What does this fold into?
Amino acid sequence: MIKFMIVFDQPEDPENFENVYQDFLALVERMPHILRRQVVHITGSPQGTPKFYRILELYFESVGTQQDALMSEIGQEAGQELSRLPQDAVQLLFADVYEEEGGSTSLTTSPVAETEKAQDTEAEAESPAK
It folds into this structure.
């Protein structure tokens, strides 16, 4: 699975930001091939005021479907809408999404999973046969 993330910095003018964002979101909702849309609104940070304000994540089946969506007429229109915000206040990112069995997000088997698997095997070997 592929993800396109739009990361928004804290807006200087929140009212203007919300107007642009709502217009942008209305266009995004009409883009083809989006499997899932997730909005993350940043509420704080243990390090003080966060740099980021909101993150919009769009999930696609593949790089090809993502490119088709972004290059579609409606995708291009959505991109133009983003240009109404200050250029340095928006970051666009592409990412691969990994969701592995057991909750591990590593690309290889985690040491914890290996230990648990070994313990399960030992417990099975020690239990009396039924």
